[in-house]
Amino acid sequence: MATKKNYRANNTYLIEGASGDNPKLFAQVLSDGRESLYLEFYLGYTEAVSKSGNTYKKVNRQTERLGLYLWQAPRTPIERQQNKETLALAKKIRYERGQELLESNEGYRLAKPKDIDFIAYFQSYIESYTKKDIRMIEIALHRFQDFLRDTAEYKKFQKHITPQQISREMMLTFTEYLQSRSIGEGARGIFARFKKVYKSCGVKYKFNYTEPFTDVDGKTISIKVDDNQLRKEILSLDEIAQLASTHYDNENPNIRRAFLFCLYTGLRFCDVKDLTFTNVDFANRLLKFEQNKTKGHSVNSGVVIPLDETHLKLIGEPSQPDNRGEVIFPLPSYEMCLKALKRWVKRAGISKHISWHCARHSFAVNILNNGANIKTVASLLGHSGLKHTEKYTRAVDSLKQQAIASLPALNID
């Protein structure tokens, strides 16, 4: 039986924490059907005087928003599992905060920013991180460490830097550095993850986490990207055929099958690696799965893709007929897959910078070139609207211009 929720006047309720516990875990009901989790700290009390002149004890409390959310009324097994995992993480954080309070000198004061090694905090954040974008979080740390090493002005902070030493000027230089290392969405995504970790540190240790990311005019420092411009390289159908016919010593057949499958379906790496035979409806020749990137956050996270002979050949069959839970493409780490992919592309004689995500872009551009309409492409890619799909139509127009420009000039009298 579910525990009854005793709502307070501000539409919040206690989840965990008995009398005397510090902090306590609460949830606040939001208008979008979710509940925002937060911690409430008891920070003692001070003597105060009322308007009538009476002296009373004013209780001091402070809250910490965890950035974690529950479904208020979970309707599916997936939503119920997400609630279970989120709640377990929130309770773990509450316990850790409680231990910090017990270990602090004055019982309720948290560590000061000047005492924090931000690099060490970043590493510990990664160790406890459980979301799908952990690779981008790791890249953000490595890029920041590279930035400190490569920038003469900030080289002194390589081994130790506190949050207070991360300034507005440093962040402006950091954005320039990121854009010199990664283009477009890559640089923006890395900077967004860096800000996310810095905010987490600020929330935990109670300091202003927005200051380094606000310029002198009060505007937020960010990396702006034209979302409708496609920057990744595209593999043409001829190049895909060239890649499919290329083999090399000690190649990994699962990497080979998985990448070719992505070129013919538009799947992301995080989705293709998790596919099992339960996702395949062999009778109706359909692939059904939920996108890891939007699962639990979008009603359009489910994708259905028709399968043809090429797809089915790449999928194969489970090692045992009843082993439907078997992973279709047993893949090593992303880094290992990318290393193998680069070697494969080079052996095929393709002089393009190809990452795994290029398969998704190549799929979209190639089917648009072959006459698919933009709504169909958006559906196959699992986009909730046409905004993110429109960049592929621009890429197709560019390819058409290149094709026309490749025609030899005519001498016309």
Automatic annotation (TrEMBL):
<protein>
    <submittedName>
        <fullName>Site-specific integrase</fullName>
    </submittedName>
</protein>
<dbReference type="Pfam" id="PF13102">
    <property type="entry name" value="Phage_int_SAM_5"/>
</dbReference>
<dbReference type="InterPro" id="IPR011010">
    <property type="entry name" value="DNA_brk_join_enz"/>
</dbReference>
<dbReference type="GO" id="GO:0003677">
    <property type="term" value="F:DNA binding"/>
</dbReference>
<dbReference type="InterPro" id="IPR050090">
    <property type="entry name" value="Tyrosine_recombinase_XerCD"/>
</dbReference>
<dbReference type="InterPro" id="IPR025269">
    <property type="entry name" value="SAM-like_dom"/>
</dbReference>
<dbReference type="GO" id="GO:0006310">
    <property type="term" value="P:DNA recombination"/>
</dbReference>
<feature type="domain" description="Tyr recombinase">
    <location>
        <begin position="230"/>
        <end position="406"/>
    </location>
</feature>
<keyword id="KW-0233">DNA recombination</keyword>
<dbReference type="GO" id="GO:0015074">
    <property type="term" value="P:DNA integration"/>
</dbReference>
<dbReference type="InterPro" id="IPR002104">
    <property type="entry name" value="Integrase_catalytic"/>
</dbReference>
<dbReference type="Pfam" id="PF00589">
    <property type="entry name" value="Phage_integrase"/>
</dbReference>
<dbReference type="InterPro" id="IPR013762">
    <property type="entry name" value="Integrase-like_cat_sf"/>
</dbReference>
